[in-house]
Amino acid sequence: MGQFPINLEEAIEWLASFGGESDGGVTRTLYSQSWKEAQQALKGWLEEAGLLANYDSIGNLFGRLPAANPNAQTILIGSHVDTVKSGGKYDGAYGIISGILALIQLKQQFGPPAINLEVVSFCEEEGSRFPLALWGSGMMTGIYSFNDIRDIKDSEGISFETAMMAAGFGLSEFRVRNDIHTFIELHIEQGPTLEKVEKSIGIVKAIVGQKRFRITVNGESNHVGTTSMKWRRDALHGAVNMIHDLYKSVKEYDEDLVSSVGQLFVEPNVPNVIPNQVQFTVDARHPNESVLRSFCQQFTEMFENHAKKLDLELKVEMWHEVQPAQMDRKLNETIQRICTQNNFPSHWMNSGAGHDAQLFARICPTTILFVPSQGGISHSPLEYTSTQDLENGLGVLIQLLHQLAYNC
Amino acid sequence: MGQFPINLEEAIEWLASFGGESDGGVTRTLYSQSWKEAQQALKGWLEEAGLLANYDSIGNLFGRLPAANPNAQTILIGSHVDTVKSGGKYDGAYGIISGILALIQLKQQFGPPAINLEVVSFCEEEGSRFPLALWGSGMMTGIYSFNDIRDIKDSEGISFETAMMAAGFGLSEFRVRNDIHTFIELHIEQGPTLEKVEKSIGIVKAIVGQKRFRITVNGESNHVGTTSMKWRRDALHGAVNMIHDLYKSVKEYDEDLVSSVGQLFVEPNVPNVIPNQVQFTVDARHPNESVLRSFCQQFTEMFENHAKKLDLELKVEMWHEVQPAQMDRKLNETIQRICTQNNFPSHWMNSGAGHDAQLFARICPTTILFVPSQGGISHSPLEYTSTQDLENGLGVLIQLLHQLAYNC
Fold it and tell me: B225–A243: do the CB atoms touch at under 8 Å?
């Protein structure tokens, strides 16, 4: 390949070479050397493609195909350039690359659009280096400000501000845009649904809301052999009763609800001592905030009952919360028509993971499209989507942008 | 106090000074310096009391009050001198001290018995330094041999044999005794039963059998947000269902059954990933082997059903097993009569912890008597039994030995 890629398959490998690792993984955390090189390389490609390339003051990179009318609003397309540690080649990258390729093709084929088309490579979404996610889209949508990064450090003690300035950003005031008319993100699914239902395009109805809790159960430790069952205050017995009934109650809700215990610690965690403390997390997600809230309230009451029955102390703390985001129905219906016309089997679904699109949904019509993830695997060097599936997604995006920006 | 203690209270503090720590804890692991000093000090006390003191070839210490008849058999009384790391003052020590004080008093008051009375300070019971418990009584009863310690090392890499020889033992062949007629052990309860039922002497019916298992549940890890509940192979969900039903099924048995999950590990143990592996231990104890076996078989089948239902892989490994040991009914009835005569409230119970007595039960009439443990606490610097309770236990022991060795 030359300096810049000429098709989707090449572009995925090209972008993955910035921060690429021997096992096929990619590490490109915010404001790192590999991150800088990736953004600079993307800027070069945008310029060579004849798009107006520029950064904003925090390092979001834009490539604009301007409308003839200088007062036109903007359809923004894109995703994030940062990765988790040892992530895959497709997460984020696919949304940027397909946006660039779409604009290149539309420019060549149809010239200037009636509304600005602009691709964005968001500086950060994952929250992998600093304990703050969705930085790029958060600033663009006016939901975050520089206040949100004060006192935030990475695991090596480097402050967010220092890292940002070392990369050449954060030096001027941030200007929130008021021309964004629509936001569209193309992304790998990162789950097994499309593969299981054998569809090639996922039309996202909503990005689910999330609530995450830390549950602490305190009892009393004693010798397992010498303490009769009736005199025990076994924290693990209590925790197990709670989690058992949590999974049981998930079934009573609709299939959009997911809830999980991913982390659990036992104290003192030795075979012949009754546990005096168990800490575990509960993660609950649903596209409807009131359903989610009622589920969480229900399991909290149920946990309290279990604690009382076994004479245990209970602490329930919510440490993370994200509101659900509804994707735009009209945009989705247009996507559905395009899929039907092209014979791309499509599937209406929710996104169980968070995305930049969830913040744009608060300020403008927004949607996100999924392509299948092999085995549902993501955030791993094993992340894979076939070239055919990637091309299908790009095809839908080009036709959607054509309808929105030329046939209007 | 002089060189040697003159009463129970003094003797407990005196013996605890060997390996004593600033917080009141005692560490006296097998063949260590503090262990050697304790055995040597006890030997001095036995000699000063006019008992025939000697070691066997592995470091069990004996003090004999001989019968006039040189062919008489022997009633052995005692417990172990070793402790766990940072253990209490009473565990083991009380059984040795009360044995010595009983023999001193019987000798002074009644002279030579009709049957040899011999106190033993077993070299090892806890298994705290080397991964082998009941070494002293195991050798005496012919259940262990030197073969059992080959290739065994402590956490610092010192072999069992090297440690034994450095302490001056293991140099000559071990001679199994064939004169033991009865074994009696006085011990703190190490559980809360006597305190809860407000009794001062525990008459032990049996030392429970133990089976310990390691259970491994394997599933598949996935993103908690993007994986529908119906496509999960959640190892923690499976483990929780198993443990929930384990505790439920314990209730269907008699109150002598105890079963516990003390240790549990989750992989990868992060809040937003479905666990792909859970490992946990099951400890089950009951005085009747066939009841215990049937319980373990039942939960194993139940675990298999749960694993099958959730498409999980299951491995069940038993890594520790101890047969139940029945204490001698006639000895216990004699103890009951002595308690009644002395107005000591007594309680028939099982021992949920292991003791030297469990091995002697295989070769001769054996019993173990308990005195209360405050708060059920043991293996801790907080271990405590009131002087009154210790004196009551000693009183019963003296009267029991009087009946067995003088009134026969």
Answer: no
Q: Where are the domains of chain A?
A: 8-207+325-405, 209-322
Please report the residues numbered 234 through 253 in chain B whose beta carbons come closer than 8 angstroms to any beta carbon of chain A.
234, 236-237, 240-241, 243-244, 247, 250-251
Cα–Cα distance measured from residue B305 to residue B282, given in angstroms and rounded to the nearest whole number = 17
Per-residue pLDDT of chain B (408 residues; tens, 9 = 90+): 468 999 999 999 999 999 999 999 999 999 999 999 999 999 999 999 999 999 999 999 999 999 999 999 999 999 999 999 999 999 999 999 999 999 999 999 999 999 999 999 999 999 999 989 999 999 999 999 999 999 999 999 999 999 999 999 999 999 999 999 999 999 999 999 999 999 999 999 999 999 999 999 999 998 899 999 999 999 999 999 999 999 999 999 999 999 999 999 999 998 889 999 999 999 999 999 999 999 999 999 999 999 999 999 999 999 889 999 999 999 999 999 999 999 999 999 999 999 999 999 999 999 999 999 999 999 999 999 999 999 999 999 999 999 999 987
Q: Which fold has domain A209-322?
A: Alpha-Beta Plaits (3.30.70)
User: What would the DSSP string read from start to end of B205-247?
Assistant: EEEPEEEEEEEEEE----BTTTS-GGG---HHHHHHHHHHHHH
Query: Any idea which architecture A8-207+325-405 has in CATH?
Result: 3-Layer(aba) Sandwich (3.40)
Q: In chain B, which among 99-158 make CB contacts under 8 A with chain A?
A: none
Cis status of the peptide bond prior to B192, with omega within 30 of 0: no
Q: How far apart are CA B385 and CA B376, in angstroms?
A: 10
Residues B113/B65, Cβ–Cβ less than 8 Å = yes
Question: What ipTM goes with this model?
Answer: 0.89
A222 contact residues in B (CB cutoff 8 A)? 191-192, 376
Tell if the CB–CB gap between A352 and B224 is shorter than 8 Å: yes
> Domain spanning B8-207+324-405: which CATH class is it, in words?
alpha beta
